[in-house]
Prior knowledge:
Layout: H1 7-12, H2 14-27, H3 33-41, H4 46-80, H5 87-110, H6 116-129, H7 150-185, H8 187-210, H9 217-220, H10 222-234, H11 240-285
Helix pairs in contact: 4-7, 5-6, 5-7, 7-8, 7-11, 8-11
Amino acid sequence: xxxxxxxxAEKNSPDADRAASGLWLSSGRYQNAEKTRMLSFMGLAxxxxxxxxxxxFVLGILVLSTWLSLGLLVARWIMGGHRVYGFLIWNLFxxxxxxxxxxxxxxxxxxxxxxxxxxxxxxxMWLLFFPNAPYLWxxxxxxxxxxxxxxxxxxxxxxxxFGWNGMLLGLVSMYMVHRIARDRLGVMAGWLIxxxxxxxxxxxxxxxxxxxxxxxxxxxxxxxxxxxxxxxLSHPFEHPLLFGxxxxxFVFLLLAYITLLALMAMGREEGxxxxxxxxxxxxxxx
Length: 286
């Protein structure tokens, strides 16, 4: 017995729908499938290229902002006729160190490295140098308290730009370390490490400003550094300025970091909405 199927029935059958869907995928959204396979074979999948592009964009912004700060400093030298605030260059250089350490760790993490000892060593070095980044905010104290002339306002903008760059470098490096800890140890452990690092970093800022301690003192004069720290930690109420400012810096950096994460989440949400809109537009146009 032969069953005759009309053309309309064929068009409305599930097989026809799947065939039409496959035709749309091959001609529309997945028209570059061959190119995608080639890039994946080369280790340059489009998703990775997209991520690398955004990371390079962030790095470019940080470099551009750094050059702006240096340009403001040079302009101040030309305008004032003598070189002042030269220490800001060295402090900004130190602020870049934790960023590059965290970037090296993040690269190893993306490559799924199994060298845990190396990652832990880099993490310890990052934590040691991390306070140098937000420490740049404390250089505002070098501004004169009187004589608010145009030169003073230029100095203020210049000092704020250095502090801003230091905080950005610190927070971006904090995000990379937090991401590594979250992926490898879990969400809770990641947040504990991030909050602990912000707390220790805030204490390091106070130690650097009020004790005039440096990160490399742990290697050059560890006895003096650790001895003084133990003495101060054992009698915290005798050092209200040190621990009071450390607490304020901790709250400030924690809120700044949460704000950064919120802005990043907002950007991802808007990006997903844009992709969904383009997807719907492609479906409706097919």
